[in-house]
Amino acid sequence: MGLKHSNRKFHSRPKLCLLKCSTIIAAFLFLASFIYFFSPLADFAKSWSREVHFRGDLREAKFPWNKLCFGQANEKLKLAVFSKSWPIGAAPGGMERHASTLYTALAAKGHEIHIFTAPSDRRAHEDIHRGNLHVYFASNDHGSVNCSLAFDIFNRENKMNEFDYVHTESVSLPYWRARVVPKVAVTWHGVWYEIMHSKLFQELLSNPKEQLPGPMTELQEAMPRLLNEIRFFSIYKQHICISDSAGEVLVNIYQLPQRNVHVILNGVDETKFTPDPMAGAVFRERYGVPFNVSLVLGIAGRLVRDKGHPLLHEAFAKTSKRHPGVFLLVAGSGPWGRRYAELGKNVKVLGALEPSELSHFYNSLDVFVNPTLRPQGLDLTLMEAMHCGKPVLTPNYPSITRTVVLNEEFGYTFSPNVESLVEALESAIKDGSRELQRKGKLCQRYAVSMFTASKMASAYERFFLCMKNTRYCQYPLTSDC
Fold first, then answer.
1. Cα Rg for the chain, rounded, in angstroms?
2. Would the N or C end of the chain have less CB density within 10 A of its end CB?
3. Domain 59-267+454-472 maps to which CATH number in 2.102.10.10, 3.40.50.2000, 2.40.440.10, 3.20.10.10?
């Protein structure tokens, strides 16, 4: 009896062992797959936590203020803003959309915002007075901002009730005017040190065999303009950069005090740009995208040379021959629209889209492509596409790789030449729709954590409060998150 019992016990052990082993293996595989899918997000969360625990003077922060969580401010501000243009009508540019998003959000927070600008359509319009938002159109005969007229309106409003602070988008308030304004901050959407990179890439692309004429004259003139810009930048009191790399340039190259340089990233309306597969499917059907395509790429913006369209046109022409199931949607207007249409049935040129259509456009894509040859600032289209859950394919400029496409989990980067762009397109095609969806989900999470209108407005609000009253420069306050 004992022997039989012993044998049964002995024979049951392999089954028990197999059961335990299979359970352990299954658990291991699940854990491995979990780590594979979420490790990029974990890495990001780790880097995020280092910044969230910041304590001290915000003027000493060496990272984007968007990474912090500011509480509700009880103090209200009266701000003057000089902006190149204000969005009117369809298809406004990125700068106009940025201005509208930021100042509308600040006005909604209860701050009194006075904007001195010109309408984007360069036509005559009545001033806008809507709640706390006041837009004064001061145009010259060509539809651009009349600086003298805008400054006169500013002085008139300032005498009635003094502004707490003055903000200018780039040089909308020229430095010789800023010299006489005691409280002024400027946001740089591009500096000449970065623009020199643009001229370099455009020269290499348009004149690969050193054939003149070309943009060489502009490239030669870039250095004197850079020196001039470095000399007058210090006239502005405080500087806001929209990318990490631009902030470093202003400190290391332009030699501005670290305490006067701050990074606040642009944001887009997170309520308008959201994942919506159904809207994307309807958009595809509306514009005649074949149902059996393997991959849909998309590009949006002005269809001009410096936006990189010569690059994408040639690269896609090569790629589509090897991958006839890949489709390209082109949203925007400009001279390159006709050339894209000549590429055949794999390309659909949509023309300029209404702002309300942009989110549906992004949702119709598998990958958003931005081949820009202008490595300055941050293109809002990248952020909008990421908010809609789409990975991006874009050049490897420092302003982008340091701030937006942190690693390959967010999409694909390439050097600004045709061969490198073809390789990046091949990588996206090889990954396929399932992997692109996974990357898109990570992009959406990151965008919501960094590139929202609410985070941008909250950071600007705290910046201006800090400039008015230094007690707001301390972080965290009891009212902060």
1. 26
2. N
3. 3.40.50.2000
Q: Which pLDDT does position 422 carry in this prediction?
A: 98
Total Cβ atoms within 10 A of residue 448: 15
CA dihedral 311, 317, 321, 325 (to 10 degrees): 90
Three-state SS string over 88-103 comes to CCCCCCHHHHHHHHHH
* CATH number corresponding to 277-451: 3.40.50.2000
Tell the burial category of 159 from Cβ atoms under 10 Å away from its Cβ (0-12, 13-18, 19+).
exposed
**Structure pTM?**
0.87
Other residues' Cβ atoms within 10 Å of the Cβ of residue 321: 9
3-class DSSP assignment, residue 279: helix
Q: For the chain, what are the domain ranges?
A: 59-267+454-472, 277-451
Intrachain domains 59-267+454-472 and 277-451 with the same fold: yes
CA pair distance 408, 306, nearest whole angstrom: 25
CA distance linking residue 80 with residue 85, whole number of Å = 15
Q: What are the residues facing 186 on neighbouring strands?
A: 168, 239
- Tell me how far CA of residue 185 lies from CA of 101, 179, 213, 462, in angstroms: 18, 12, 40, 13
d(CA 392, CA 444): 11
Amino acid at 31: L
Q: Are the C-beta atoms of 292 and 298 separated by less than 8 Å?
A: no
**Under 8 Å CB-to-CB from 467, ≥6 apart: which residues?**
165, 183, 185, 238
Is residue 83 within 8 Å of residue 116, measured between CB atoms?
yes
The CA-based dihedral angle spanning residues 148, 152, 155, 156, taken in that order and rounded to the nearest 10 degrees? -170
- In whole angstroms, what is the distance from residue 101 CA to residue 119 CA? 15
How far apart (Å, rounded) are the C-alpha atoms in residues 320 and 14?
56
* Bridge partners, residue 327, by sequence: 296
Residue with token string 């006239």: 235
* Calpha distance 327→348 (Å, rounded): 8
Give the pair of three-digit tokens for residue 125. Answer: 């319009």
Q: Amino acid identity, residue 6?
A: S
- pLDDT tens digits, 292-328: 999 999 999 999 998 999 999 999 999 999 999 999 9
The 3-state DSSP class for residue 43 equals: helix
Name the burial class of residue 64, with classes exposed (0-12), middle (13-18) and buried (19+) by CB atoms within 10 angstroms of its CB. buried
Tens digit of each residue's pLDDT (9 = 90 or more) over 404-413: 999 999 999 9
φ and ψ at residue 338, rounded to 5 degrees: -65, -40
